[in-house]
Design brief:
This protein is α/β, with parallel strands linked by helices. The protein has one domain: Alpha-Beta Barrel (TIM Barrel), CATH 3.20.20. Helix content is about 40%, strand content about 15%. It has twelve helices and ten strands. The protein is globular and about 45 Å long.
Length: about 260
């Protein structure tokens, strides 16, 4: 099943590439803020909040609206960085949304997509992304080859790398790379089920200086406190904020959990 979902995600990216989705004609500057520095100096919970209108597990999350309004509400609530979906298939994302947000805010931005090709990395640079997502399992399961070259190309384009893992084995592999931040996805791509204990079990006994981001299934201040205790330094939160009637207030509540 995992292979099927991953395969579908890879296929969707290839379709988007073939459709010219990443042929963007801009040259935007990234933020001058350092997200890693923010994480290490922030006394509160550091949130990377996600603008996404749909997902494979939830379907439609929110009616598509102006992403810049949402971005500003998130930042007003205390979010320190934003993740923006650029994948059109299953996520209703778009590089155009990213461009709009980049032109409206100055915080660090993550281009959230299933990155399989240098064309997407080139697009990330052009649209002013600070970070790009790389998924370890795509390399471990041989959908793609040579993760080191892929990451090096991202760095050459001035991008930082968020490398996402789900299992202990993927985590060990990720530690051998030059990734800037390692994200632990609490969602199992086999079943799309979420278990916050994933972060705890992957990090158990881990003692290193790499910054760790916990992703998926984070809904309450208690969730953040638990994940922080488990070793996470920052938190990627999308659905529970995007579903909220008051985005700014929901973000503030989570930020103030620490």
């Amino acid at each position: 099943m995992a292979e099927n979902i991953l395969k579908k995600l890879v296929t969707n990216s290839q379709i988007a590439i073939d459709d010219g989705v990443y042929n963007v004609d801009v040259n935007l500057q990234k933020s001058d803020q350092d997200f890693k520095q923010i994480i290490t100096s922030n006394p509160h919970a550091t949130l990377l909040t996600e603008i996404k209108f749909a997902s494979p597990s939830l379907g439609k999350i929110r009616t598509i609206g102006d992403p810049t309004v949402i971005a500003k509400q998130m930042i007003a609530g205390g979010s320190k960085a934003l993740s923006i979906l650029t994948q059109p298939h299953l996520f209703n994302g778009s590089p155009e949304y990213f461009i709009k947000v980049r032109q409206a805010v100055d915080v660090p931005l993550l281009m959230k997509d299933i990155m399989i090709d240098k064309i997407q990395i080139d697009a990330a640079k052009k649209i002013g992304a600070d970070y790009m997502l790389v998924i370890q399992s795509l390399f471990d399961q041989k959908f793609l080859t040579d993760i080191d070259e892929f990451i090096a190309y991202g760095h050459k384009q001035g991008l930082n790398i968020l490398l996402e893992v789900h299992t202990r084995e993927e985590f060990q592999n990720a530690l051998k790379t030059e990734a800037d931040i390692i994200g632990i996805n609490n969602r199992n791509l086999d079943t799309l089920e979420i278990n916050l204990k994933t972060t705890e079990s992957v990090l158990s006994g881990y003692d290193d200086s790499r910054l760790i981001l916990s992703e998926s299934g984070i809904n309450t201040p208690e969730d953040i406190q638990y994940l922080k205790k488990s070793g996470a330094n920052a938190f990627l939160i999308g659905s529970s904020i995007m579903k909220s009637d008051n985005i700014e207030e929901q973000v503030r509540k989570l930020v103030n959990s620490i």
